[in-house]
């Protein structure tokens, strides 16, 4: 079974005619957006808000009509992947480098659905390094402050140069081992000057579509 395809396409059940839909970034979100494009070609009337330039390009190729924030009052539904999901539906996101736009869109959505294959389910967040988006200016000092919180940071690279987000910022992949209090860590990181935001999505997901014991399930936030 192609878990990502099955999970991504399952999320289409939440899409209704006339919705504004936040389009996620990543390998599982790809299947959601691709199938959504097929439905649009068949007459489904929706508008999309992409979480990255990569997703914007895909949506344009598929003929999905896109809108910007200044054209809408709300996002009805956002569907996106995750790098880790814990039992309380807290997430680590940002493996693809789009965490800031993903968080803005998720926070603006009436309903936020996460699509994640079985390998993303964990008891405690932290095995996957936490992405932290930072401005290039004062990078060394920002790294020092993050290390003071117990994180071991590594500047994400791409082709021998610092990886740049769609916003022109850097990503620090940060290992905290186990993140037992994600809400507190999220706040502490975002109080550091130079940090734009981080990949902890705490209490944001309304539901997670995943595979548990080889069965497709939808887990709702308690």
TrEMBL record:
<feature type="binding site">
    <location>
        <begin position="80"/>
        <end position="83"/>
    </location>
    <ligand>
        <name>substrate</name>
    </ligand>
</feature>
<keyword id="KW-0413">Isomerase</keyword>
<feature type="binding site">
    <location>
        <position position="120"/>
    </location>
    <ligand>
        <name>substrate</name>
    </ligand>
</feature>
<comment type="subunit">
    <text>Homodimer.</text>
</comment>
<dbReference type="InterPro" id="IPR020672">
    <property type="entry name" value="Ribose5P_isomerase_typA_subgr"/>
</dbReference>
<dbReference type="InterPro" id="IPR037171">
    <property type="entry name" value="NagB/RpiA_transferase-like"/>
</dbReference>
<feature type="binding site">
    <location>
        <begin position="25"/>
        <end position="28"/>
    </location>
    <ligand>
        <name>substrate</name>
    </ligand>
</feature>
<comment type="similarity">
    <text>Belongs to the ribose 5-phosphate isomerase family.</text>
</comment>
<comment type="function">
    <text>Catalyzes the reversible conversion of ribose-5-phosphate to ribulose 5-phosphate.</text>
</comment>
<protein>
    <recommendedName>
        <fullName>Ribose-5-phosphate isomerase A</fullName>
        <ecNumber>5.3.1.6</ecNumber>
    </recommendedName>
</protein>
<comment type="pathway">
    <text>Carbohydrate degradation; pentose phosphate pathway; D-ribose 5-phosphate from D-ribulose 5-phosphate (non-oxidative stage): step 1/1.</text>
</comment>
<dbReference type="Pfam" id="PF06026">
    <property type="entry name" value="Rib_5-P_isom_A"/>
</dbReference>
<feature type="active site" description="Proton acceptor">
    <location>
        <position position="102"/>
    </location>
</feature>
<dbReference type="InterPro" id="IPR004788">
    <property type="entry name" value="Ribose5P_isomerase_type_A"/>
</dbReference>
<dbReference type="GO" id="GO:0004751">
    <property type="term" value="F:ribose-5-phosphate isomerase activity"/>
</dbReference>
<feature type="binding site">
    <location>
        <begin position="93"/>
        <end position="96"/>
    </location>
    <ligand>
        <name>substrate</name>
    </ligand>
</feature>
């Amino acid at each position: 079974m192609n878990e990502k395809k099955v999970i991504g396409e399952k999320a289409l059940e939440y899409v209704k005619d006339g919705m504004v839909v936040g389009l996620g970034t990543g390998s599982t979100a790809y299947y959601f957006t691709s199938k959504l494009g097929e439905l649009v070609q068949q007459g489904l009337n929706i508008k999309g808000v992409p979480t990255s330039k990569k997703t914007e390009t895909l949506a344009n190729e598929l003929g999905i009509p896109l809108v910007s924030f200044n054209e809408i009052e709300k996002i009805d539904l956002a569907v996106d992947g995750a790098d880790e999901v814990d039992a309380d539906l807290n997430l680590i996101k940002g493996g693809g480098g789009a965490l800031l736009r993903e968080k803005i869109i998720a926070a603006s959505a009436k309903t936020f659905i996460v699509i994640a294959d079985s390998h993303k389910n964990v008891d405690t967040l932290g095995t996957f390094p936490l992405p932290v988006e930072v401005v290039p200016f004062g990078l060394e000092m920002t790294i020092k402050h993050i290390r003071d919180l117990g994180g071991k940071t590594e500047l994400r690279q791409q082709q021998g140069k610092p990886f740049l987000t769609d916003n022109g910022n850097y990503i620090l992949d940060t290992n905290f081992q186990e993140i037992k209090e994600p809400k507190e860590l999220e706040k502490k990181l975002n109080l550091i000057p130079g940090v734009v935001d981080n990949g902890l999505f705490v209490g944001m997901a309304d539901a997670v579509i995943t595979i548990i014991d080889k069965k497709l399930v939808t887990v709702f936030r308690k």
